[in-house]
UniProtKB/TrEMBL annotation:
<dbReference type="InterPro" id="IPR053880">
    <property type="entry name" value="GPR180-like_N"/>
</dbReference>
<protein>
    <submittedName>
        <fullName>Transmembrane protein 145</fullName>
    </submittedName>
</protein>
<feature type="domain" description="GPR180-like N-terminal">
    <location>
        <begin position="29"/>
        <end position="138"/>
    </location>
</feature>
<keyword id="KW-0472">Membrane</keyword>
<dbReference type="InterPro" id="IPR047831">
    <property type="entry name" value="GPR180/TMEM145"/>
</dbReference>
<keyword id="KW-0812">Transmembrane</keyword>
<dbReference type="Pfam" id="PF21892">
    <property type="entry name" value="TMEM145_N"/>
</dbReference>
Length: 149
């Protein structure tokens, strides 16, 4: 049985594409945050079961350092407990997060021009994650540029 050259090339192309793809990007968010609040919701995303990854980059003036990147999940004690709750201040909104889950990224003691990081997620069910920024105790967040994927 003779295999044509075109079929061989097609087979090679399909196999190559399968082996070269190592990840798929999902949601991508990019923009500028400029608000008079000390806590602000940015975006949400959903990871299906198994494994997921979030990468982020925020940039702001060194003299106006530092803001916290907050990662809330969809448990009733977290996101629903803080979102659209004007009676809660910034400190109360941060207090529901669990430090052992690495849900707060930020360091107020270190001068930073660019905050780059990421988190890996593993879950037994679909889970929504909500991203917010905070700088409690100030009249407004520092204007900053950011991107997440």
């Amino acid at each position: 049985m003779e295999v044509r050259v075109g079929e061989k090339l097609l087979c090679l192309a399909v196999l190559s594409s399968v082996f070269l793809v190592d990840s798929v990007l999902g949601k991508y968010v990019k923009g500028i945050v400029n608000t008079k609040e000390d806590w602000v919701f940015l975006t949400r995303f959903c990871f299906l079961t198994d494994f997921g990854r979030l990468d982020f980059r925020f940039r702001y003036p060194k003299s106006r350092c530092c803001q916290n990147i907050l990662l809330y999940f969809d448990d009733s004690s977290q996101w629903p407990a803080v979102y659209k709750r004007p009676e809660k201040n910034c400190y109360q909104k941060e207090a529901v997060l669990r430090p052992e889950n690495n849900q707060v990224e930020g360091d107020g003691d270190e001068e930073v021009l660019s905050c780059v990081g990421g988190r890996s997620f593993r879950s037994v069910r679909e889970r929504w994650w909500y991203i917010a920024l905070s700088k409690c105790g100030v009249s407004a967040l520092t204007p900053l540029q950011g991107q997440m994927s």
